[in-house]
Queue: 2 jobs
Job 1
Amino acid sequence: MNISRRAVMAAGLGLLATPKLARAQTFPVRPLKMVVPFAAGGPTDFIIRLLVDPLAGNLGQSVVVENRAGAAGNLGAVAVAQGDADGYTMLHSTVAMLAVNPILYPAPSFNPMRDFNTIATTASLPNVLVVNPKVTDVSSVADLITFAKSKPGGLTYATFGAGSSPHILGAMFQKLTGIEAVPVPYRGSAPALTDVIGGRVDMLFDSITTSTEQINAGTVRALAVTSAERVSQQPNVPTMKEAGFAGFDLTFWFSVQVPAATPEATVARLQSALYDTMAQQSFADALQLRGAERLVVPRAELKDYVARESERWTRVANEIGLKPL
């Protein structure tokens, strides 16, 4: 009888303890946050918003997007890196944040390659050089160069802040063509493009995802794309290589990070959900409509890919003479 009673009590205690143990081991158990370190409406924002709802379905918890723009993405990045390493706050960022920002914002307390674990790439896209056809009446890159040389120091180009892809490409354009232009920083793609359309800035190496609609509407004119090949959404727009500048074969890519100290099991759960979500054809189709491509690097190759590509962008940034701000 005593043995039977002890057995029953042990079994009962086991039943009581099992749900608590399961809850402790299950991630996630509450909503998650995805920080976008740029203004709403730009490609970093647009791409991840295609993913968060199906990602929430895979994780069983909601995923809320929070835009924290500033310092070329560093404001939001630092907040995530220095936050809790529990997997509940992720960052969707750009290759520039990983590779270029350490040049612009050197700080012993923060280094993105050290302080983050990149758990997935999401998408890639070219930039497209656009102008306002009513203000800057040019039809080709050659025309733009001629126009720029006719007004030394007077040309302006929009950026998303120091170290952003429009800033780097604009600086490269000046170095390779010998023109002079003044960078005008904005908090993201949407406000920068708005000012090109409004005639307040001359040109922009914009993300093709945000410019496509305005190109089709005729409010901006596309002169060239920065990818190795023409993009299907704008087949009549030549590449910078076709315009005579092979060094412009730079494709911008995006990725999801968590703080480096995030537990391996949590990283594995997030990775699995992200890769499953990105495998859906609807994600690839939605990206393609805006000129972007799905970028899924196999998990076994991810670390090497991020290191190799980041080194390439760092080299470009150094070649154009980017200095600490």
Job 2
Amino acid sequence: MWSICKKEFNQFFSNLTGYIAIILFLLVNGIFLYMLPDSSIFEYGFASLDKFFSLAPWVLLFLVPAITMRSLSEEFKAGTFEILKTKPLTAWQIVGGKYAAVLLVILIVIIPTFIYIVTIKTLSSTGTIDTGGIAGSYLGLFLLAAVFAGISLCCSSFTSNAVVAFLISVFACIIFYFGFTAISSLPVFKGKWDYYIEMLGIDFHYRSISRGVLDSRDLLYFASIVFLALTITVKNISKK
């Protein structure tokens, strides 16, 4: 499994793709957080990263599918998947290796944003910040990206076209992130099933963890979605 992970990771950073992904993530967040008046932390009035943690999921909705879209679809298209299947690896080891590589890339993308913590600490009048809340928000952001990675990897296993895989992944991530919240707000569910329907969405659990409170139900939810997505992926590649 680790050989697959190492291969995928090195391949991602063997060209400009990996570096462009990191630069774009930091650039987009930097523009919104420091330059645009409506979302600037300088105009917010509080030494908080709430603006960043509200914006980052939108960027990850497109960034994570872009990272994973070639993971399996390109293998199918190039015919290298047949060679991969001849290796002494199980389907779970192949999928697990590719998924671990994506998580490592996501981690490298997120780590440079720690500079934002230094920024708001400098802006704080007391020189202190809500460390616990920020740590919880970063954990929630990583878990959110991990779920997006699982869903996107699953979508990549359905097609040999990387562009199609990207579009399907973005659509699926949007549905899982916003769809259930939108459905729960329909008048027919108000006061009856709205809370339970909203609980099915990723946004509900992401906001819960972002408050700095670790709830086992939120962790179980994220783990379940990832496991389900990877299980479907394994079944798909086992049929190839």
